[in-house]
Design a protein that fits this description.
Radius of gyration of chain A: 29 Å
Number of helices of chain A: 15
Distance between the termini of chain B: 22 Å
Largest interface: A-B, 28 and 31 residues
Oligomer: heterodimer
Largest sheet of chain A: 4 strands, mixed
Shape of chain B: globular
Strand order of the largest sheet of chain B: 6-7-8-3-9-10
Largest sheet of chain B: 6 strands, mixed
Structural class of chain A: alpha/beta
Structural class of chain B: alpha/beta
Helix content of chain A: 55-70%
């Protein structure tokens, strides 16, 4: 393997990219657009859930329950319904996520020491929001019940305590903010797609333009050609790693709690694997269009669906979990989240780094094998 | 003199199409080997097989004694290759392209500038060195491609139609360079479908519909094929042509400039006299009739007529 050949190939590729505005779009515009799109688009945190109240009781008890909801930052009261038909209208038009119905006789039942039931009518067509809202509603009702219980006990001269309470201390993401979870994953997704896109055209382009024939007639080996072509893209992709980390901090306020240098070092290993995937597509495809298409679908879909980026791997069928293991992004995702949120170090991460390194070497070997020095 | 290229029973198929069919020949070291034939006769496919760019479907190819199937990489280091179509980097300048291939072939850095200077001066590339190769006209592109293929002083160069699309002056320059290369001991394998270029070659092979139909030195080709060639000048070019083509004594008559070249039957002892008699009986007044040395074009036309259709070619050539 000759360094001079690789550098000459890298230089030619670099010059080509400098003159091609398309690469600038892929390197700078695409990551920023995707980061904004996904960063703002995917958010599990719900606040100010719109709701309406239909109070059929009208007693003090009902009003104080409603107040409990009004004072929470999770809910936002939109309307106090007086006409039954408005319930359907509001849920139909999705103006509210749920309607809280205070049944007649609530105050009376409670006063008499009987169980009192409150009704919540939810719009179940958006299961995520409905589920989250239901959880919040139950929480709010439970809070209120506890408060009533304590008041009742005090009133009767007993010590007002709750029998059991949970004191959660949440590690790694104390605010349970989904940005902290999403942004590191998004960085992995971006890099996986971007790297494959960048290298997907570099060989098939030469086939299309005709320069391939002279190149393969030369004694440069497949490995030299691939490594040479990957080098400029590795530099660009590395710049994108920095771009993503900085954008994540500035736009979404997500900071790396762990060692940034370690994160950068491991990302180089991942980039090597990921760039090889693009080269592989480039070596196999016969036109640039097909190569770009394959590279996009071949990295975007698996990374979104199977890497654990959005959908937790543990809840997937065993077969899918197995498939997810052969996607480099799956392992890199764990690394990035760990360093971002848990400040993990090499002591914990080394097996993942090893897996990524094996991926890099294997994929490069497969790509070099697929790259036939023939026309 | 050693053998640079040894080809035995080379076959290359693309699906059902047989592009190269049972071709055998050898190229000796230091010679200019002309590979002739019309477009689509299998010349480029053969060259690509020799360079290891295409695998042979059958047969063996050895370059400098190395089998092309097993030692393609070693062979590539010993050859220069100029493809038929422009195959350099359009967005690199001429200089950058040359430097790129100097790096690919490992031309020592120490002598590189001097060597580049020599080659560029020889091919007069000075004015376009800093221009992107993609912006060059065909003639300049061909010069640049020739320069990159010989920069590393390969002992064997394959030039696939180097002179196609270039002007006559550049064409002359190319053949001077090829002669110089041969003088220095380089083996030159060159394809062309321009028959007068064949006169420059030490030996020739002629392809037709994927078959090798003749080979030998230019003189051998002339004496073996299209022997009894007569040049006829009359006042009435087209009438004369019709008369000669209808005559039993004439195998083939074609217009050649302002004259007609008629190939007469090999059995005739004085073809010029026979042609005069044919024309006199047709009442065409003759300006001149003379036995001539056939040109390579005459040879080619004669051979092409004999092997006119692929099925005739399949019946077997004499090459």
């Amino acid at each position: 393997m000759r360094l001079r050949r690789m550098l000459a190939i890298a230089r030619a590729e670099w010059i080509h990219n400098r003159r091609d505005p398309r690469s600038l779009v892929v390197i700078v515009v695409l990551p920023v657009v995707l980061l904004l799109l996904f960063g703002y688009g995917i958010n599990y945190d719900l606040q100010h859930i719109p709701f309406a109240v239909y109070d059929l009781d009208g007693t003090e008890m009902g009003r104080s329950l409603i107040q409990q909801f009004q004072h929470s930052r999770y809910f936002s009261l939109r309307e106090v319904i007086t006409d039954r038909r408005r319930v359907d209208v509001l849920l139909d038009t999705e103006e509210v996520v749920f309607v809280l119905v205070v049944p007649p006789g609530l105050g009376r039942d409670l006063g008499a020491g009987r169980d009192a039931k409150v009704q919540a009518l939810l719009n179940g067509s958006d299961t995520v929001r409905a589920n989250v809202a239901l959880g919040y509603i139950e929480g709010a009702i439970l809070d209120y019940s506890t408060k009533l219980g304590i008041e009742f006990a005090r009133h009767h001269g007993l010590s007002g305590t709750t029998p059991f309470t949970v004191h959660p201390i949440i590690f790694y993401n104390p605010g349970l903010e989904s940005d902290n979870f999403i942004i590191p994953g998004l960085i992995v997704l971006l890099l996986a797609v971007l790297t494959a896109l960048l290298t997907s055209t570099c060989i098939v382009r030469e086939r299309e333009l005709g320069s391939f024939e002279t190149l393969v007639a030369s004694p440069a080996t497949a490995l030299e050609i691939m490594l040479g072509k990957m080098l400029p893209y590795a530099v660009m992709a590395f710049a994108d790693v920095l771009l993503c980390i900085i954008a994540g901090r500035l736009i979404f306020g997500v900071r790396v709690t762990g060692n940034i240098s370690l994160l950068l070092a491991i990302s180089i290993v991942f980039l090597a694997a990921s760039l090889s995937i693009g080269i592989l597509f480039s070596a196999l495809a016969r036109t640039q269009r097909v190569a770009i298409f394959l590279a996009f679908l071949g990295t975007f879909l698996p990374t979104v669906l199977l890497s654990g980026f959005v959908f937790p791997l543990r809840s997937m069928p065993a077969a899918l979990q197995l498939i997810s293991k052969v996607i480099p992004a799956t392992h890199f995702l764990v690394v990035v989240r760990s360093i971002y949120l848990k400040a993990s170090g090499m002591a914990v991460l080394w097996p993942l780094v090893l897996i990524l390194a094996v991926f890099a070497v294997t994929l490069l070997a497969i790509a070099a094998k697929a790259f036939k020095k023939r026309i | 003199m050693g053998v640079a290229v040894q080809v035995d029973g080379l076959v290359r198929k693309f699906g059902d199409f047989i592009a190269v069919n049972e071709v055998s020949f050898e190229v000796r070291e230091g010679e200019i080997f002309g590979f002739l034939g019309p477009n689509g006769s299998g010349k480029s496919t053969t060259i690509r097989c020799l360079c290891g760019l295409l695998l042979p479907s059958a047969g063996t190819v050895a370059v400098h004694g190395l089998d092309v199937r097993r030692h393609a990489e070693e062979i590539r280091a010993q050859i220069g290759y100029m493809p038929q179509f422009f195959s350099l980097y359009s967005d690199l300048s001429a200089r950058q392209n040359i430097e790129f291939y100097a790096a690919m072939y490992g031309v020592p850095r120490a002598g590189l500038q001097q060597r580049m200077g020599e080659v560029c001066e020889r091919l007069e590339l000075g004015p376009i060195m800093e221009r992107p190769a993609g912006n060059l006209s065909t003639g300049w592109r061909q010069r640049l491609a020739l320069a990159t293929s010989i920069l590393h002083r390969p002992p064997l160069v394959f030039l696939d139609e180097p002179t196609s699309g270039v002007d006559p002056i550049t064409r002359r320059m190319f053949w001077e360079v090829i002669d110089d290369l041969a003088q220095d001991g380089t083996t030159v394998f060159v394809t062309t479908h321009v028959m007068d270029e064949a006169e420059h070659c030490t030996r020739l092979a002629m392809m037709h519909y994927g078959r090798l139909i003749a080979q030998g030195s230019p003189d051998e080709m002339r004496s073996r094929h299209a022997k009894n060639m007569v040049e006829v000048r009359t006042g009435k070019l087209w009438d004369t042509l019709a008369v000669l083509q209808a005559s039993d004594a004439v195998v083939e008559a074609v217009v050649f400039g302002d004259a007609i070249h008629a190939e007469c039957h090999a059995a005739l002892t004085n073809p010029a006299q026979t042609v005069r008699e044919v024309l006199r009986s047709a009442r065409i007044s003759v300006e001149s009739v003379a036995a001539i040395q056939p040109t390579m074009e005459d040879v080619f036309v004669s051979l092409a007529r004999r092997y006119g259709h692929p099925e005739h070619v399949a019946a077997g050539g004499d090459g």
